[in-house]
Amino acid sequence: MNRYALELSDLTMGYGNTTVLHDVNIKVKTGEFVSIFGENGAGKTTLFKGILQLLPITSGSITIFNKDVTQGKDKTWLRSQIGYVPQRHNQGNFPICVFDATLLGRWGTSFSYFKRPSKEDKEIAEKMLEVVDLKHMMHQDCRKLSGGQTQRLNIARALVRNPKLLLLDEPTTHLDLDSKAKLDETIRVIRSQYDLSILMISHDHQHSRKISDRVIQLQSGRISTDHKWDEVMG
Ligand SMILES: Nc1ncnc2c1ncn2[C@@H]1O[C@H](COP(=O)(O)OP(=O)(O)OP(=O)(O)O)[C@@H](O)[C@H]1O
């Protein structure tokens, strides 16, 4: 088994001439759950964009499960390894049911008249909806889901490609206590069932202390703190 799910070495990147992240070094062990904190604009989402190769990096390196992906040559492999749950992502205004929205996570828009989802695609989508406890709603219109249900659907959609590294961008923002607890339970279950390594952007210390192992603080694009939660006082 690979020792690290993710290794960022001296990662520097930004937008145009503006550098947002400066020499960031992060190692996430396989199976570890790490929370990323930082004030607005600290560079948390930019970090995710770098890992997902949605934005080119200026210097440094990115290694995923021992494979150097810095050059971004094998994006198909990268996308098969990483599941991404973006911030406040709803399903838009299309009349699409929960099952179809989950299925779309498997091959994105490459399904067409000529490439129909296979039996396996459908089985995996159904299985993931069961895992996030939405199977009973699989025929429901996505637009009718609550915020918590929508987040669980987003997780199911991220998991249908069997990724090993999951990136969560503030998954519990705007959720009430019950929905938060339900989402935590879902995250706990998927983490153990699918051997996931998780990186989660958060603003909620209490919540993150409860579900993650380690906390990294970004300050103006630099790491200011990196501790296991049980080493942090209070
Ligand atoms: N597309 C973009 N073009 C130019 N600058 C950007 C772009 N996206 C973000 N930035 C800038 O990069 C910096 C870091 O933004 P980023 O979204 O990574 O912060 P964040 O830590 O995720 O903040 P928040 O907690 O508000 O989501 C900010 O100064 C922001 O204005």
From TrEMBL:
SMART domains: AAA. Pfam families: ABC_tran. Residues 6-234 form the ABC transporter domain. It comes from the Bacteria. Keywords: ATP-binding, Nucleotide-binding, Transport. GO terms for molecular function: ATP binding; ATP hydrolysis activity. This is ABC transporter ATP-binding protein. It comes from Alkalicella caledoniensis.
